[in-house]
């Protein structure tokens, strides 16, 4: 018996929609069937982003900091910053240094008595607008050094787009959860499929938990109790 020797299985949007319709006892027949399935698929992907940290969406980027400028609006595919460091002398193999920056809440930032204080930035907080997030650093960068904010961010999952031949911006191991979730979403708006909803929800939740567990951080975690005197 010979196996395929390939690891390229994927589903395009039409395949996902067909599989989901079959799970609710229907067939993908009309252009509107495809349109409503694609809309539900985009909503499903937004739901996944609200569930928390999806490790496959973590990317890295940098932002050059300008003296006397405290706020920087990022491009709209960036949902949140996970970790950030202040990089000095970027690109210099002998001098480049990364310094930890602490993320603070808006309340902590609001309590800063002098928000115009300049120096080497040590803190940042993030404000959210519908179109993008803005990073505010404190102290306000001075001109003593060249500063770069180097950060890990969570990227928004790409929209499905109109062509049915597009693939969905998720790892292949998430395809079972994707099709199960879409079937559940379609059943919610299909009167003939209402009886399937409890089962579809259970299948969807189980598929999501399996996929999410496969993507969890595998590094060891060490917790050391603080000792105060």
Keywords:
2 domains; four-stranded mixed sheet; alpha+beta; 23% strand; elongated
Describe this structure in words.
The chain is an alpha+beta fold. The protein folds into 2 domains: 13-53 and 158-214, no CATH class; 57-155, no CATH class. The protein has helices at 13-23, 31-50, 106-110, 175-188, 197-214; strands at 58-64, 71-73, 78-88, 97-100, 102-103, 118-119, 123-128, 133-138, 140-141, 147-155. The strands form 3 sheets. A 4-stranded antiparallel β-sheet has the order 1-10-3-4, with no helix packed on it. Strands 2-8-7-5 form a 4-stranded mixed β-sheet, with no helix packed on it. α1 (13-23) crosses α4 and α2 crosses α4 (175-188). It is elongated and about 65 Å long. The N and C termini lie far apart (69 Å). The model has no long low-confidence stretch (mean pLDDT 93).
Summarize the structure.
The chain is built from five helices and ten strands.
Q: What count of helical segments does DSSP give?
A: 5
Question: Average pLDDT across residues?
Answer: 93
**How many strands, which pairing sense, and closed or not: the largest β-sheet?**
4 strands, antiparallel
N-to-C SSE series? HHEEEEEHEEEEEHH
- Measure the end-to-end span: 69 Å
Low-pLDDT runs of 5+ residues are: none
**Helical residues, percent:** 25-40%
CA gyration radius, whole angstroms:
23 Å
Query: Percent of residues in beta strands?
Result: 15-25%
* Number of individual domains: 2
Oligomeric state: single chain
Task: Tell me the overall shape.
Answer: elongated
- Strand segment tally: 10
Q: Numbering strands along the chain, what is their spatial order in the largest sheet? A: 1-10-3-4
Counting helices, strands and paired strands, the structural category is alpha+beta
């Amino acid at each position: 018996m010979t196996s395929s020797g390939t690891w390229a299985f994927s589903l395009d949007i039409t395949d996902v929609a067909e599989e989901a319709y079959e799970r609710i006892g229907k067939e993908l027949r009309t252009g509107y069937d495809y349109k409503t399935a694609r809309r539900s698929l985009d909503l499903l992907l937004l739901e996944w982003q609200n569930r928390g940290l999806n490790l496959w969406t973590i990317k890295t980027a940098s932002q050059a900091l300008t003296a006397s400028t405290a706020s920087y609006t990022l491009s709209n595919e960036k949902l949140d910053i996970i970790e950030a460091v202040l990089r000095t002398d970027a690109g210099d193999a002998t001098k480049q240094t990364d310094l930890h920056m602490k993320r603070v809440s808006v309340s902590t930032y609001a309590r800063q008595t002098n928000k115009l204080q300049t120096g080497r930035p040590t803190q940042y907080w993030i404000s959210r607008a519908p179109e993008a997030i803005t990073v505010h650093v404190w102290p306000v960068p001075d001109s003593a050094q060249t500063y770069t904010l180097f950060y890990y961010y969570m990227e928004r999952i790409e929209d499905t787009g109109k062509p049915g031949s597009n693939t969905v911006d998720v790892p292949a191991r998430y395809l079972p959860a994707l099709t199960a979730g879409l079937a559940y979403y379609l059943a919610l708006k299909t009167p003939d499929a209402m009886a399937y909803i409890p089962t579809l929800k259970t299948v969807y939740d189980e598929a999501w938990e399996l996929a999410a567990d496969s993507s969890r951080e595998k590094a060891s975690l060490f917790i050391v109790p603080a000792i105060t005197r």
